């Protein structure tokens, strides 16, 4: 006999450490495209998608078929011991489409944090330098180097230091909070004067759209300024596209919105439709810097995950998901902008393709309001809509629905979102 959500949760609290934070008090039983059912049979529309992992939805038939076919052949050899062609062909596909200047090469890993770690290793080996510059509000993973690069203390860094050295942070442009592109670039020059000379910096790493930081979009002027600084000083530019990649922003990669190119791109999440796979793609001469054995991992390029990734890339093209990302994102932004007129607590609506966010502030003080964002999230969840919060102040709701979500379900979810927004605003105003 199946157990209730409460019974399972009691077991979790006894068996699993509290450091693994869990948002929902219910447990998944099955899922299909944009719908998830819990163990008690309740249905939820999934606007979280495993934190941007399921751009092609839960259990896409093409992804399942690819995994099943590979399962009948082999599940593991360790690519570094006995390689297989599917990794080579996936690298070729990514090399052909990643916005990297000149010939590219790709290495596969398992998690986004692992991709970031290896991108830093490659940059340090290629340049012979140690310094790395990141941005405030950035999220680059929970490994030690990932945490060092991450520009948000709570909850990621508390109690885990000291972190690897030679990591520095710049302010990320944010019009809502009064930070301009010039502020960021001037801070970079000040960093070179006060903390580390440019000739000791291996790389600057940036998310083209910050994920945990609040879906803040990097202006083209910032990317152009960083590229110019990198070229002038022999620094590599790393684009962390772990969350932005594979159609979320309406392009296969968000860097395609800019004329400049990164030297290295990290990717993961929706690359393999829910299977654990990440990658680092970069200029061939940069990627070849580490000696044989310098890169790798026992599970890196798992054959089941690689098969899924091939299917994901096929689905993105065959189902027109890039165009659909733009259309759905515009529909959502349009609705949020319309609701903003009657909801003064909405301080900003922003997005790139279907990487959309709404930010909340106290209507009187205009200070960031995490309480209101949390209330909207809870009201939506009570109505069967799963949302995620983010942002440096925790006052942003981000939308990460599968790009394959049916139009009718998407429209119904917007109605639910509006109801949740009105309920949360009314309760906050009354309080």
UniProtKB/TrEMBL annotation:
Cofactor (UniProt): pyridoxal 5'-phosphate
EC number(s) given by UniProt: 2.6.1.19
InterPro entries reported in the protein's UniProt record: 4NH2But_aminotransferase_bac, Aminotrans_3, Aminotrans_3_PPA_site, Class-III_PLP-dep_AT, PyrdxlP-dep_Trfase, PyrdxlP-dep_Trfase_major, PyrdxlP-dep_Trfase_small
Swiss-Prot/TrEMBL keywords: Aminotransferase, Pyridoxal phosphate, Transferase
GO molecular function terms listed in the Swiss-Prot or TrEMBL record: 4-aminobutyrate:2-oxoglutarate transaminase activity
PROSITE patterns linked: AA_TRANSFER_CLASS_3
SUPFAM superfamilies: PLP-dependent transferases (SSF53383)
Major enzyme class: transferase
Family from the record: Belongs to the class-III pyridoxal-phosphate-dependent aminotransferase family.
Protein name as annotated: 4-aminobutyrate--2-oxoglutarate transaminase
Species whose genome carries this gene: Hydrogenophaga atypica
Lineage, uppermost ranks: Bacteria, Pseudomonadati, Pseudomonadota, Betaproteobacteria, Burkholderiales
